[in-house]
Amino acid sequence: MNFKHDIVIVGAGLAGLRAAVECVEEADVAVVSKVLPTRSHSGAAQGGITASIGNEEEDHWEWHMFDTVKGSDYLADQDAVEIMVKDAPRVIYELEHMGVPFSRNKDGKIAQRNFGGHTSEYGKKPVKRACYASDRTGRVVLDTLYDQCLRHRVKFYQEHYVLSLVFEDKKCAGLITYDLSSGELNLIEARAVLLATGGCGRIFKTTSNGFASTGDGLNLAHRAGIPLMDMEFVQFHPTGLYPLGILVSEAARGEGGILRNSLGERFMERYAPTVKDLAARDVVSRAILTEVREGRSFEGGYVHLDLTHLGEKKIIERLWEITSFVRIYLGIDPVYEPIPVYPTCHYLMGGIPTDTDGRVLQDESDAIAQGLYAAGECACVSVHGANRLGCNSLLDTLVFGRRCGMAMKADISKIEHQPVSDEPLEKAKEMLAGLLYHKGYEKIDVVRRNMQSLMMDYCSVFRDEEGLKKELESIRSLKMRFNDVEIVDKGKNFNYELMEAIELGHQLDLAEVILLSALYRKESRGAHFREDFPVRDDTNFLKHTLVFKGQEVRYKPVVITRFQPEARVY
Amino acid sequence: MILKFRIFRYDPEKDDAPYYQSFEIEADPKDRILDCLNRIRAEKDPTLSFRMSCGHGVCGSDGMRINGTSSLACQKLAKDFKESEEVLIEPLQVFRVIKDLVVDMDPFFERYYSVKPYLITRTPPPDTERLQSVEEHRKFEDAIRCILCACCTASCPVNQDKATAGYIGPAALVRAFRYLFDSRDEGREERIALLDNKDGAWGCQTRWMCTKVCPKEIPVTKEIFEIKKRILESKKGKK
């Protein structure tokens, strides 16, 4: 089937839905999602959204900006960060007006709490900046935006999987989708295409990410010739539930939770004397794994997150969801017992390079890829640089999702639908037939588990040249094995095996891009820690990595406006 | 531990009728049932279809019947079934089966939408947030835990009975409750008009199944009762 819309948005998470809400009144908008709406991974965000609205104590956007830049280890583009933090209070009030059920303080205002790396007076002490709805903030914002989309009659192509982006005359003119419920291929023509497909945590063995976070959108852009930026920066959240990797929100520490090693020591005092357990995530993750390496962890390699001193009332009121996870999965009650935690792959700082209006940039000269936009985790504006601060990701999706919507609205008046040839559809058919009818013998699950273990062993919190080189070779041989993958299910009705095979192809490509980016960055910055180059090197590496199709690695400068790089101590 | 599964299978593309298939797998007691189903796909039969997304009870994708009770496969652990001879896995009731454990959720979302699941306001908002006290917020706080997994609606005897299948169901009513009792909402009259009928709040026969199965521990039946009470109060007020 052929369809035609002004704007097609891929991904029904926060960035995609916020963009849809922005342009639906003035344009014909459709959202394509491989899962049902409200199942997107944004819904798993727990802790909150940062904004310097100062409901609990004095706060200023300049402080928020400083923290974000420092948190990024000075790799974030400061013009973009300034736009984001200045817009944050408006975002919060807008959500409140839409109906988001924020938790309240005793004055009836939106309650705010502490989060890692967020401070007052440029690092002096922690500040309450995160606006929240218990520990289900992402879910309630997602529900609210979905309801707004329904109300405004946004068209949803749900359980449609995007196979490729269509380019005609160097402009993005639409996409090819695979309808999971029928096995049919569709061409959806568009004047503007927004990729809002989230992250790729599922490349790693231990992750907080949902099954759908396979990085499809990132690699669709890459295959179409768009470089990927700063892909070496993959965030490991310090407190994944051991051994599942499920997120235990930083809100637990924001509310007063304490990390302890097997000796009962509050070890963060040694690593971050000023803010302790509320240091940035990269710092805390390294601290935990250092404790593990030095033999001060529990058997199996985890530490304790202790909430027992907070009392049942506060725990149930503010941390209901994580309390429930811990009870269900570990049979432990966090009111009385500490929670076993260890770092889990959580967020991709890098992604598809965009300008501050979500327009995709196709090289280091910032030339725009016509008709293509990106927002949310799959985009790299860059506001998170080398390490994202907690609660800045929802803010990113809402600020830049909206700006992207505004840019698309404005741009489509200048963009006509491009006539699309039969070629993209034919190519997609060939690709599917190749996968389905190729006589293979490799199993998807085996290749995938291999990749996930390799990424965990050699490319997670600690990295070095030897390991990265070895892994790059292994991933390349896995890619060869992937060519011989067998798909047993030949059916057209919810053939998840076929979708997973395509996802795995994306994951392997992205693993290679991450490894290359990590190998070439011979310094340590934010989430990228090289044991063979343990120090930040601003002389040689204060720059963004760009990996082009064909694995060419190039760089572009960082935008520095207000804050010059300085030593990063918490 | 060894776990035996008996799983509902149906692919209208090739099967004349549904059937049950048995599998036996090695499971860690702490494995989620969802992990077990994925292992069956990886090791035994990749054609088995079911939905999943977050894997920890937040997205609401993997609602299914496990030993007869509507549950999330990611919230149940292998050890919970160590006494069971076999674990019976079937699709949610009430909804049409598309394939295996995948059911048609469109009617569910249509009914959900019919209760106007959004804040209705007439007064223009202030420059900052609208105020709401902690107590006002607490009134509907349980309801915002709803993840639209449909376990409640699928288990409701009223929804299961063909004669009363027009009932909008507990999930839609939980969302209606959430807005009806939100102090910021100004749409009380139109909401009550939507709910005051036999397929609305009055469809509920207080059978408690929704409350029993809710994976997020929402007091569903109680909230529906509160809606009924509010409908009566508003009628009384008019007289």
Q: Could you describe the 3D structure shown?
A:
The complex is a heterodimer of chains A (570) and B (239). Chain A is of the alpha/beta class and 570 residues long. Among the domains of chain A are: 240-343, Flavocytochrome C3, Chain A, domain 1 (Alpha-Beta Complex); 423-543, Fumarate reductase/succinate dehydrogenase flavoprotein-like, C-terminal domain (Methane Monooxygenase Hydroxylase, Chain G, domain 1, Up-down Bundle). Chain A has 16 helices and 22 strands. Chain A has helices spanning 14-23, 61-71, 78-98, 137-151, 216-223, 251-254, 268-271, 281-293, 312-318, 320-330, 392-411, 423-437, 444-458, 465-482, 496-520, 538-541; strands at residues 2-10, 29-33, 49-50, 112-120, 125-131, 155-158, 160-168, 171-179, 185-195, 228-229, 234-241, 258-260, 303-306, 339-348, 352-353, 359-361, 368-374, 379-380, 462-463, 529-530, 543-547, 553-557. In chain A, strands 1, 2, 6, 7, 8, 9, 16 and 17 form an 8-stranded mixed sheet that branches. Chain A starts with a strand and ends in a 13-residue tail after the last strand. With 239 residues, chain B is an alpha+beta fold. Chain B folds into 2 domains: 2-103, Ubiquitin-like (UB roll) (Roll); 106-238, Fumarate Reductase Iron-sulfur Protein, Chain B, domain 2, CATH 1.10.1060. Chain B is built from 9 helices and 7 strands. Chain B has a 5-stranded mixed sheet with strand order 2-1-5-3-4. In chain B, strand 3 (63-66) and strand 4 (69-72) form a beta hairpin. The termini of chain B are far apart. The mean pLDDT of chain B is 97. The chains are: A alpha/beta (570), B alpha+beta (239). Chains A and B meet through helix 3, helix 4 and helix 10 of A and helix 1 and helix 3 of B.
